[in-house]
Amino acid sequence: MREVDARLVKRLPATRETEAFELNIHLQADAGITVLFGSSGSGKTLTLNCLAGFARPDEGRILVSNELYFDAAAKINRSPRQRRCGYIFQDHALFPHMSVRENLLFAASAGRVSHRRIDELLEAFELADLAARKPAQLSGGQKQRAALARVMVSEPRLLLLDEPTRGLDLRLRESFYELLEETRERLQAPIILVTHQMDECLRLGDFVCLMGSGRILQAGARDAVFAKPVSVEIARSLGIYNVLPAEITALHPSRNISVLRVTDQEMTGPYLPGCFPGKRGFLCIRESDVIVVSDSRRQETNRLTLPVIGGSASPHGVRVQCEPQFFVTVSHARWEALRRDEELQVILPPSAVHFIE
Fold first, then answer.
1. Which terminus of the chain is more solvent-facing, meaning fewer CB atoms within 10 Å of its CB: N or C?
2. How many domains does one find in the chain?
């Protein structure tokens, strides 16, 4: 039995500004951080609101730690207050007229929480010296710590976070990530985090649900999902993969390899059970797995020669674009040595090659 098992169907009618939308998912989560990842409008925040009780699904059932929060058929719908969900909104939602301590005390009023417990949380989240301040007197990072401390007062069975680092600079985001990782260990309950930032998803997620148009497109352990996207559309939408047309030319089960033809060159990759020579699809490889080489005389497996189109600055160096729609990131110093070349030599490690039908 999963800690969170939610089958949700929620329909939103069309308005003058928006088209009709249907959320139709089966979400499962255990202790740890499950990231709902996708573009704006994919249904991520609506999912959180259904779990918290702020939106009522049209159909479905929500079970959290063997407690039934919602069942459309049985007409069961617990109020948000009864669900013991901690919810951190994008704006933190601290009461502006209350001090940090008063915000925690208000959250504690729903249950039997001692003043000692409040003091422990203030200390744990480094808020003891700020306890008398109002939210307007706090920095963005301090507001985040206060919001997390407040939801921890009631020891929630489920923690929901809706893009909690939006608007924060890199230093404050890093501080929040460390705080959330500590909270994960302290809480030992499911945490569901909404984001559309790839770096945040990779840094925090134990499990990932890729969402689009109100559906879960792929779900599983983070590394498994990002190692093998199940469709070309998903791979392209994530923005971290190179995708090239490919054809299987040979399969060697005894050697555990397959041979693919890509841009008129042969590549090897892992064995593809259930496939056959002549099958066409796409080779998929993460940009970070591509190796740039400079010695054109060396003969190496999975070497590609690609025409260079140009380069653009990125947070990690220079992102070089080649034909056909192939990208690789190199250091600024490496780019200075390469920028006069018309072609780029790259190696695609066989273990990193993924074939998508």
1. N
2. 2
Same domain, 214 and 332: no
**Both 184 and 238 in a single domain?**
no
CB 2 within 8 A of CB 30: yes
Residue that terminates a domain, selected from 227, 256, 277? 227
Chain centroid to CA 287: 18
The overall average pLDDT reported for the chain is: 89
Answer with the one of 167, 198, 227 that is the final residue of a domain.
227
What are the Cα distances from residue 136, in Å, to 101, 123, 139, 142? Answer: 14, 21, 8, 11
174 sits in which H/E element: helix 170-187
Tokens of 165: 């680092």
Mean pLDDT in residue range 132-151: 86
Residues 72 and 220 placed together within one structural domain of the fold = yes
For 26-54, letters b (16+ CB in 10 Å) and e give ebbbeebbbbbbbeeebbbbbbbbbbbbe
Buried (b) or exposed (e) across 219-250, using 16+ Cβ within 10 A? beebeebbeebeebebbbebeebbbbebbbee
Q: What share of the chain is helix, strand, coil (3-state, %, to 5)?
A: 30, 35, 35
Identify the pLDDT of residue 293.
86
Which amino acid, one-letter code, is at 334?
R
Residue 186, C-beta contacts closer than 8 angstroms, at least 6 positions apart:
124, 152
Is residue 188 domain-shared with residue 247, that is, in the same domain? Answer: no
Kindly state the average pLDDT of the residues 223-252.
92
Please report the pLDDT score of residue 335 as a whole number.
Answer: 86
Q: Where are the alpha helices (DSSP H) in 36-84?
A: 44-52, 80-83
